[in-house]
Amino acid sequence: MKYFYIVCLVAFLASCNSQKTEEVVSVIPEKSKMSKKKSLTFFLEHYDKFFTTNFNVSECPGAAVVIVKDSTVIYKKGFGVKKIKTNDYVDTNTVFRIASLSKGVTAVLAGNMVDRDELNWNQRVKESVKTFGLRDKEQAERLRVKHVLSHTTGLYKYTYTKLIQQGLSLDQIIKSFNRIGVVAKEETEYEYQNAMFSVIEKIMEGATKTSFDNLLKERVFDPARMNDASSTFFAIKNNDNVALPHKYNKFSKKYYLDRLHSNYYNVAAAGGVNASISDMGEYLKILLGHYPNIISKNSLADIFNPVVCTSEKDTYVNLWDGVTDSYYAMGWRVLDYRGRRVVYHGGNVNQYKTQILVDPDNGIGICVLFNGPNIFNGPVMPTFLNYYDFYLDVINE
User: Of 3, 118, 216, 261, whose CB has the highest number of CB atoms within 10 Å?
Assistant: First the structure.
């Protein structure tokens, strides 16, 4: 049934672009005649056709994709333009805002600090951030690093998003938590956060006497050779190779240039990282365990270890074909997918749409970045998993 779905999907995609029908609709070679290398090439060719066709149909201005297998980048490509009505094309060093994929980067940095005995997952928040408090003083005393990183602090969803958007500093936001009540005991409920998640910045800075931005640069970006990556508004604003954000008007069905704004750089740990698709290729290698100098395999396992179940939440990943249960770990979503666990996160800020997925059991990962909202953003990852499962079936015959 899965093979039928694949063939039908490819045929459907071809119907979106009749000029490419002969190229897209391919006869699947007999499994016994396909080598491992040839079948991987077959997988990449068909995913490229899937992505290219649907990207063109979506009319999204720009995008970039990278796929890493084990420790090797096997696919890396820019699509479209940085700015509508220009021929300034996206390349593999074009910088995007990666939005909430920043949370995973922050978790990697936390793992680095755990490896150096500078941080502990069970460390109390108030030990490091004296100005932090809640209306429920006892719960404020009990909150730990793992609760902050897993969105299980007991606060209501998106607490203080308005303060983030008003441009308040993280210090000002933290002082405001004293007025906030809780809706659940810690580690019992998942409610997604940005302001609360970023309290981790102050814990990290207190432990190292180094700014969060410098910690990211010195401990993640530089050793991983993520040469285009940064975590400030100043850095992206002054970069001349940026995929600019675009709004989509559903009535006119057209894209319009939007402005880069500074929202969420005041909570950079949650949503302020900038990176190119080349950077994200190196980052995927970190997540696949190939940079033990940045984060050990033990700490990677920690940040990927589920803390709270989200299967009953209104979360789009629960609608993916093959997903039976979902969880939130520390900075990461974890999905039970067809007998194995995959690690995922999505992001959305300033019109940028971003997604990243890692399949640790099979040593493969993918990241996709868009500079505008589009309906194609939805099927990108589920289709990748479906295509890759077909590839696995071929090589395991």
Answer: 216
